[in-house]
Structures are given as C-alpha cells and as structure tokens.
C-alpha cells in the first residue's frame, strides 16, 4: 500500500477523511476536512478529487463536501445490521407508540454501544444525531444489558481491558450483571440527562447470548419503569423469534 | 495516488472490493472476492488484510469476509438520506399497515432508482434484498414519478442520455409525464411481476420538485389503485411537511 513520507497509508488517510464527517458536521470545506482529518491540504484536495470521481464523496456548487450516496449504498447493501433492523423495526414502532418515548436498537461493538436504529417519539423533532452514534458501555442501560448477556469470554475481555474504570464505577459488577440476568433487563439512571432512566432488554440468540438490545429512556421516578421493562422484554422476544431460522 | 502496473488506482480496487458484496453475497472468501472484484489474488489478500485492520471489513474464523460495522457506521453517521428516512418512517409505517403491502422510499441517483428504505408487509418474510438496491427509472412507477417531478434540466439530461431507450419504450413521454404531474402520482405495471402494479407519489420540496418517492406494489386489477394512490399522496405531503424547515 502506498505510504506517504510520514508512513501514513492511503487507507489510513481515507478512513480519517470519512471519519471527519459526523451528524454535527455532515458537510465540510476541503480545508476544514484537511484539518479535521489531519491530512495536508494538497493531499486532501487530491484525495477529495478522487473520492468525488468515485461518488464516495459529493461536492456542491459552493465547494462543500459531504458523503456520497454511493458510499451509503455500498455500506448498506449487504450490511450485517440489515436483517436485524428489518426484524426489529415493527417491534420498535410498537414500543415507540405504546410507551411514547424514543426507542433505540443497539449492538456491542469494539467495547462501545453502537446505535443501529432510533425511532423518535411521535411528534418530536427529527433527530439524526444518534443513528450510528456511540455510547459508553458501563454508563448506559443498553451497554449493561449487552454486557450482562454477552458470552463469558467477551465479559472477561471487556473487564480486563477496562479494569480500572470498572473497579471504580462498578465495584459489585458480578452481582450487578447477575441481577440484570435474573431480571431480564437493565435500567440505569440517565447518562446524558440525570432526570431520566434508561431501560434496556437484550435480544438473544438461540444459546441465550445477546445479539442486540432494545431500549427506551423514560422520565425518572415516573413509575412506568416496570411496565416499560416488561414491554421491552416482550418486544425483544418477538425480535429474537423473527431472527431465528425457521425450524 | 498509488497505481498498480495496470494503472488501476488503490481507490478503484477498493471500490470494486466493496462493490463485490451485495444482498445475495453478504460474505465471500478472499478468492471469490478477488474474482468478483477483478483484483489479483495476492493484491486481494493484502487489501483485505488492511481493510480488516481498519474494521472496514471483518473476517470470521472460517476466513469468510464481509463488510465491517465500522464501514456501516462511517457511511450512516452523516448520510444525506438519514433526515429523509427519519421523516418518512412513521408515514411509511402508516401506509404499510393501512394498505398491507411492501412500502418503499426511493431517490433518483445517477439515472437509476436507489431504494433508501423498505418496510415489508406485516407477517411477510424478512426481505433485505432491496434496501440500497437499484431499479430502472423508465420501467417503474417510482422512476417515472421521480422523473416527472424532476427539474426541467434533469429531465432533459436523462432523456438525452437514454434517448434510444426512451424513444422505444416511451414514445409519448412528454404526454406521460404531463399526466403523472396532473394526477400527482405514477402507476406502472409490474417490472418484476406482471401480476402487480406499482403506485408511487413524489415527496416534493418547496419549489415543487421531487426529493424522493414513496411507493407500494399492489395486485393488478385489485381495484385499490386509486385509493392507494390517494393514501400515498397524503403520506408524501406529510413527509414533505416534516422535511420543510420550520417557518
């Protein structure tokens, strides 16, 4: 692979360019892109030129650059998340309508919670900030539900990599995950907004290990936590069944 | 950009690698990938190695390769389609439940119809074949609705690029699109299944030009075409309103 004088491969630079765009920065000038991606300006111009020619980026009349539809198409056409999303969407709609709160579908990826789909509560503003967004594992109900129902070696691996943090924030981690497993759901006071509580139920495979998690955020002390948890567990089972190979 | 002896750039090869995966081939061995992407085997191994290291591809214990979650994340985090999808989803659910047929959301991209979202009819099997799939413009109700409500220069450009085909298949094209504009929707007998009819209504911007199209496929001669068209036009207006900047 071609390396720049700094030993930076073309692919490194490409990933940093794509990574420079996010929900808050859906479009950038080439110079902003060069800064955010830490790529020299001349290289950024050349790379953007090639990426636009391949439709991986698109450029408007004002010179603003954004991700191209072709990139979306390539990434989504055979995405491993597609079957999960399609199976989960009808159940997410049910939860969203019955509980009336934003509903998320998430997976555990590289020690973080990656949000695959989010339905906003009816009538709320369009929220695109969090689809494909990431959240910390040990500070969210989603993350704790995913971890509690992970394979033993995945739990051990996570703990080994984050031991200091977990010792500080979850000294009784083993008891905590045992309780989550017993309850069949996790709840956790709001990470972003302390006035809320997250509730999350795992979607399990046929061996009882998590594939994903479905979750809502409810007002804290609203008294609906138990019923929300039961509804989520019901939806999670429906999704598991929809995903299971027909027998 | 680094070129191989054949003048093939690294980016050309990367795009062909990503393009080799689709809904029917979500995972491939490196040798199948090398064949499908027309990349020499040794190069394919080296490229897969780098792409796996960057999490753009993932590889399982059997050596099967598939797209990585990181690629999905990068492509979706700031996708231009995200706002459209989020605004359209609740209306698509309504149509899907009320009409009881698969419901699609699509855009016009590089002279083809690109499917952004699809909801399967309740109870039908999970269908992941068509999200991010493509359909021909002039043989589908989606494509004809998108074309009829496109900007004049976009219509002229499409006709110029596809004149022979359009002369053969749509000799009265101008009259056809005038009728679609008058009706506010397009219908077209099934491209894949002749026993069905596609019905599509455009989602318009504030100048009256199309942004996207919402469509269903109904059984031919079922007598519900007119009511389906009215429901789709209603949903399309709701989506347009949800997309319009608050005034």
Task: Tell me what you see in this structure.
The structure is a homodimer of 247-residue chains. Chain A is of the alpha+beta class. The first copy, chain A, contains 10 helices and 9 strands. In chain A, α1 packs across α2 and α5 packs antiparallel against α10. Chain A is globular and about 55 Å long. The interface between A and B is large, with 60 and 59 residues.
Give descriptors for this structure:
Beta-Lactamase; 2 domains; alpha+beta; homodimer; globular; Arc Repressor Mutant, subunit A; 247 residues; three-stranded antiparallel beta sheet
In brief:
2 copies of one chain form a homodimer. Chain A is of the alpha+beta class.
Outline the secondary-structure elements:
The structure is a homodimer of 247-residue chains.
Chain A lengths: L9 H10 L7 E2 L1 H8 L3 H13 L3 E3 L5 E3 L1 H9 L4 H18 L3 E7 L2 E8 L14 E3 L4 H8 L3 H10 L1 H7 L3 H11 L2 E4 L6 E9 L5 E10 L5 H19 L4
Antiparallel strand pairs in A: 1-3, 2-3, 4-5, 4-9, 5-6, 7-8, 8-9
Helix pairs in contact in A: 1-2, 2-3, 5-10, 6-9
Termini of chain A, distance in Å?
46 Å
Instruction: Give me the side-by-side strand order of the main sheet of chain A.
Output: 6-5-4-9-8-7
The coarse overall form of chain A would be globular
Q: Helix/strand/pairing class of chain A, anyone?
A: alpha+beta
CATH topology of the largest domain in chain A: Beta-Lactamase
Q: Give the strand tally of chain A.
A: 9
What ranges of chain A have pLDDT less than 50 throughout 5 or more consecutive residues?
A: 123-129
- Quickly count the domains of chain A: 2
At the first level of CATH, the class of the largest domain in chain A is Alpha Beta
C-alpha Rg of chain A, in Å? Answer: 21 Å
């Amino acid at each position: 692979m071609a390396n720049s004088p700094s030993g930076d491969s073309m692919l490194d630079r490409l990933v940093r360019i794509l990574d420079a765009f996010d929900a808050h920065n859906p479009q950038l000038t080439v110079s902003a892109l060069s800064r955010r991606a830490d790529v020299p300006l001349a290289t950024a111009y050349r790379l953007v030129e090639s990426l636009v020619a391949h439709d991986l980026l698109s450029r408007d009349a004002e010179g603003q650059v954004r991700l191209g539809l072709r990139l979306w198409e390539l990434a989504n056409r055979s995405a491993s998340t597609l079957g999960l999303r399609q199976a989960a969407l009808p159940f997410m709609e049910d939860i969203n309508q019955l509980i009336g709160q934003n509903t998320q579908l998430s997976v555990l990826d590289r020690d973080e919670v990656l949000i695959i789909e989010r339905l906003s509560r009816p009538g709320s503003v369009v929220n695109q900030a969090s689809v494909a967004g990431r959240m910390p594992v040990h500070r969210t109900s989603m993350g704790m539900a995913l971890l509690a129902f992970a394979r033993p070696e995945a739990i051990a691996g996570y703990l080994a990599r984050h031991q200091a943090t977990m010792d500080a924030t979850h000294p009784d981690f083993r008891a905590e995950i045992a309780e989550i497993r017993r309850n069949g759901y996790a709840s956790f006071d709001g990470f972003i907004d302390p006035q809320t509580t997250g509730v999350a139920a795992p979607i399990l495979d046929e061996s009882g290990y998590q594939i994903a998690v479905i979750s809502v955020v409810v007002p804290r002390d609203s008294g609906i936590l138990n019923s929300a948890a039961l509804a989520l567990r019901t939806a999670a089972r429906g999704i598991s069944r929809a995903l299971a190979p027909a027998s």
